Amino acid sequence: MVNNSTISVVMITYGHERFIKEAINSVLSQNYDGIIELIISNDCSPDNTEEIIFSIIDNHDKNSNIKINYLRPSKNLGIKGNFLWALSHVKTPYVSFCEGDDYWTDTEKLKKQIEVFEKKSYLDLCATNTGFYFQNADSWNRKVIGSKNFPIHLDFKQFIWDRGYMAPCSWMIKTKSLNEILKEFIPALDISYYIYANFLVKSSVHFINEETCVYRILEESASRSKNIFNLITREMDLYETECYLLDKNRSIGIDLYDFSELKRRHIYVLCELILQIKDNLEFDRVIHQIKSNKPDILIEVHRELKRRTKLKFKIREILKKIKRRLKSFIIKEKPIETDL
User: Fold this and answer.
1) What are 94-112's pLDDT values in tens digits?
2) Cα distance from N-terminal residue to C-terminal residue, the chain
3) Which of 124, 235, 223 is CA-nearest to residue 167?
4) What was the pLDDT predicted at 117?
5) SUPFAM superfamilies in the record, alphabetically (predicted)?
């Protein structure tokens, strides 16, 4: 029976000493009849993450159906490198994910997803709804997927146009299918976006509209940052991923218009980010980064920035003229004569 299959849960972590205990315990609390292998890959954390992990392992019931496999690479691999390295240790038919700063809220998450795979053997990926927890504000958004900002995406092209999102901490994937997809993965691409979009091409994704996990939103993370340089790096990774995915899947009706629309959006986003820069050194750094990666894009970004600058100048000039006209009108206006 599929219900007794062994499932691996990949948990990558770096600097998560405040959150790792909650993440691990949320996996250890799973109610599932089969074997669960929790693979924790600590990417050389500089804090007390490792000590907390060791403490949990030492106190974990060795007779439990949940086994903990702790990994620590000899050097820092980065998020993508650590994820791929941890994934290389997965030998089970199914794999789920929970990063060290996220956690699961449904003790039957894995059980529910395995039951879906049992009923629909053609599926490759099963996702669930997700809650967002904003760490600094101590506030929640519940069942985020399906909202206006995060629609449910089960169509490849719509996912690309919307720059869709489906939280990896909600996924369960057939390991064999995931390994096949990652054979063509290249480091410049956004890995979670790449994985989900590829499964949408195959129309092999299922969504359970139940909240089973929480994606913790920090002030600084891979997808969110106050650093413009980091945001531009992520934007360029996403654009590279989108172009790669469209080019790879031309057979499903991708045309030149699709590529031009993607490029237009990319230039728009880059300009919006660049206009937020106030420091000259940061500006030079960002321009050098774009030039090194996409010199053709830099030309169009420069053209768009000039257009916006001229537009703003024209608007200011028009407003000044209107102001002068109003002032002149007020001064020249004659007082109204009366018989009083």
Assistant:
1) 999 999 999 999 999 999 9
2) 102
3) 223
4) 97
5) Nucleotide-diphospho-sugar transferases (SSF53448)
Which pLDDT score is estimated for 338?
44
Q: Which residues of 303-331 are buried (b: 16+ CB within 10 A; e: fewer)?
A: ebeeeeeeeeeeeeeeeeeeeeeeeeeee
Residues 120 and 184 in one domain: yes
pLDDT band at 319 (very low <50, low <70, confident <90, very high): low
Between helix 295-332 and helix 256-274 the angle, nearest 10°, is 60
Task: Name the maximum alpha-carbon separation found in the chain.
Answer: 105
Handedness of CA 104, 105, 107, 112 (dihedral sign): negative
Query: What pTM was computed for the model?
Result: 0.86
Q: Could you tell me if residue 146 is inside a domain?
A: yes
Amino acid identity for residue 145 in this structure: I
If one counts every other C-beta atom within 10 angstroms of the C-beta of residue 188, the result is 12
Reduced 3-state DSSP string for 261-285? HHHHHHHHHHHHHHCCCCCHHHHHH
Q: Are residues 101 and 147 in the same domain?
A: yes
Helix locations, the chain, DSSP H? 20-28, 49-59, 78-87, 109-119, 156-162, 175-182, 191-201, 228-248, 256-274, 280-293, 295-332
Last residue of a domain, one of 217, 245, 263: 217
The sign of the dihedral angle between the CA atoms of 298, 302, 303, 307 is positive
The pLDDT of 9-33, averaged and rounded, is: 97
Residues 141 and 132: beta-carbon distance below 8 Å: yes
- Are 320 and 274 members of one domain? yes
% of the chain beyond a pLDDT of 90: 67
Taking the C-alpha atoms of residue 279 and residue 270, their distance in angstroms, rounded to an integer, is 16
Q: Is residue 127 a part of any domain in this protein? A: yes
pLDDT digits (tens, 9 = 90+) for 245-280: 999 998 888 887 789 999 999 999 998 998 888 777
| Range of the structural domain that residue 33 is part of | 2-217
- Residue 271 and residue 312 in one domain: yes
- Quick check: is 321 in a domain? yes
Residue 318: the pLDDT is 66
Mean pLDDT, the chain, rounded, equals 89
Residue 26 is part of a domain; what is its CATH number?
3.90.550.10
The first and second tokens of residue 61, run together, are 């019931």
- Is residue 30 helix, strand or coil? coil
